[in-house]
Amino acid sequence: MNSYLNADLHCHSVVSDGTLTPEVLATRARGNGVDLWALTDHDEIGGVQRARVAAQAQGMAFLSGVEISVSFASETVHIVGLGFEDSDPRIAQGLAATRGGRDTRAMEMAEQLAQVGIAGAYEGALKYVGNPALISRTHFARFLVEAGVCKETSEVFRKYLTEGKPGFVPHRWANLGDAVHWITQAGGVAIIAHPARYRLTANEEFALFSEFKEHGGQGVEVVTGSHSVAEYATYAAMAREFGLAASRGSDFHGPDESHTDLGKLPALPSGLTPVWELLADRIQPAA
Ligand code: AMP
Ligand code: MN
Ligand code: MN
Ligand code: MN
Fold first, then answer.
1. Ligand 3: distance of its center to the CA of 183 in Å?
2. 42 Cβ below 6 A of ligand 1
3. Could you say which of 2, 119, 158, 235 is the most buried, measured as most Cβ atoms within 10 Å of its Cβ?
4. Secondary structure element (H or E) that encloses residue 93, with its range
5. 218 lines ligand 1 (CB under 6 A)
6. What are phi and psi of 169, to 5 degrees?
7. What pTM value is reported for the model?
């Protein structure tokens, strides 16, 4: 497997905040030419087995996946795990604890929205939730569009649900070291997701990469639907500087919300080690 392989190692299903089932995602990925696929739902691996079976049926190589919410330097950072043993009870327990506060948080978000005149947001968001354990800001964003408060979900995240705006509730997610260890203890590779999306100072970003490596993290997303072309180059350089392997994934959530479809990304910049080279013996082959 080489770096020209069409790997898409980051997307979401109805098991977290995507709009398609694992089976429909697998079909869409293969239809778009994906050779190696992972489903990376937020804080939840309930869709992994379904995705694995669907990938096999599509003749597509597969890796287990997850995207873990982590609190770091007063920011929420996402750590993708790939190729871990998904029957390992420690990762299941860690993820259960990570998603545990979501329902209470959601009720507080709804209270804040009610204070600015938007009633019924908790119930409204729940209509979009595929997994009751995983109510997220995305589900609120869909409700606010439905209610006519905003035209699209990107507008919601500019006007609501983010720091300093109505509906933002600070939350304590997993520790960086814990999240990395859940993944690595289960035989997987930990990856910093879409690093350009965090509001970190240069010092904080350096600390994130350094501490992540000290904990045993091995990869960083370079080519992602959440990065601009200029950001590919920035994080290719960071991957080289920190000796991290590079990952590639669309971060696809659904046809109506994601501008980058499954499998429709440029290749990794040259001179980087693709994360799938570290995961060769964890990949379920295509057939
Ligand atoms: P939560 O885990 O509940 O905090 O929700 C985070 C999710 O909200 C992310 O995984 C994205 O799917 C979505 N999200 C966050 N910021 C934005 C944004 N600016 N535009 C669109 N979606 C966003
Ligand atoms: Mn999401
Ligand atoms: Mn993310
Ligand atoms: Mn994601």
1. 16
2. yes
3. 235
4. helix 89-99
5. no
6. -120, 115
7. 0.98
